[in-house]
Amino acid sequence: MLRDKSFSLEVGQRHVHGVYRASETTGRRPTVIICHGFKGFMDWGFFPYLAELLAERGFCTVRFNFSGSGMSPGDEIVTDPEAFRTATFSKDLRELRAVLEAVGRTIAPNRADPERVAILGHSRGGGTALLAAADSESLRALVTWAAVATFDRMPAADRDRWRTAGEIPVVNARTGQELAIGSEVLDDLDDNAATLDLETAASRRSAPWLIVHGDEDETVPIAEARRLHQAASEPAKLQSIRGASHTFGVGHPFRRPTPELIEAMNETLRWLRRYVSADSS
Fold it and tell me: What pLDDT is recorded for position 1?
């Protein structure tokens, strides 16, 4: 039987809430940590479907909300706009590191195998996953879907206006909710430029890396995937999904898997089976 079990971690002054799913059979399972992207959350679109599929194939899956999402489990809109406003890339990285450290210990004890862990991240979460992989010597595999090649995505003139105003408005197209992003993001980019350099991280990481990207991605052009692949140390593979958008044709709420999503999942499952060893328990 498969079912979600919740967890909560205190990281700094914030709490990270998530769920894990694994077979109830005896033994530790190879584990996949799933990271959502900007304006995403752990129950968005394909994440629960992906987690269930992997759990059915013998993995323990861990998914969570970055505290900067401003959302708790069960939320459909941002309920903590200040957490969203003050989210930074460095905070995301600290939280993912905390989750990685807790897997098999306080998260999924006796279910997750801390020696057989992979991270899968989408979009901004793919960038965070890459940074965490670059700092880990024990991670078995890394998979990124539609990952960004840089966190610094705004022209200099727009950055100046942002800093002068102290924040910039952002509208969630899915919900229509009006939110703001504070200048803390700019401070983080300036103060931690070397740490947050994704192309450098690509060259430093050693975990086998599958880069999945749609060739019709309207949000993060596939050129960014090619940049990451070019910068990556071996082993790394770029898998282009023909006709796929940023979310592989999937929206929220999730309706059904698209051919593009199925291709992405099949490539991912092959990679995880090869490098994280789902067959042993």
Answer: 63
47-56 helix and 259-276 helix, angle to the nearest 10 degrees: 40
- Helix (H, G, I), strand (E, B), or coil: what is residue 276? helix
Q: Which residues of the chain have pLDDT under 50?
A: 278-281
Measured distance CA(211)–CA(264) in Å, rounded:
10
Give the model's pLDDT for residue 2.
Answer: 79
Q: Where are the domains of the chain?
A: 2-152+193-276
Where does the chain show beta strands of DSSP type E? Answer: 2-11, 14-23, 29-35, 60-65, 112-122, 141-145, 167-171, 178-182, 209-214, 236-241
Domain 2-152+193-276: give its CATH code: 3.40.50.1820
Q: What HEC string does 149-180 produce?
A: CCCCCCCHHHHHHHHHHCEEEEECCCCCCEEE
> How far apart, in whole angstroms, are the C-alpha atoms of residue 212 and residue 202?
14
**Cβ contacts of 209 within 8 Å, gap of 6 or more:** 130, 133, 141, 142, 143, 144, 202, 232, 235, 236, 237
CA distances, 81 to each of 75, 76, 84, 179, 200 (Å)? 13, 13, 5, 7, 32
pLDDT (tens digit per residue) in 147-204: 999 999 999 999 999 999 999 999 999 999 999 999 999 999 999 999 999 999 999 9
Q: How many residues does the chain have?
A: 281
Number of Cβ within 10 Å of residue 187's Cβ equals 13
Contact 88, 1 (CB under 8 A): no
Measure the CA–CA gap between 257 and 236, rounded to whole angstroms: 26
Strands 112-122 and 60-65: unpaired
User: Quick count: other Cβ atoms within 10 Å of Cβ 162?
Assistant: 17
The 3-state DSSP class for residue 47 equals helix
pLDDT of residue 23: 82
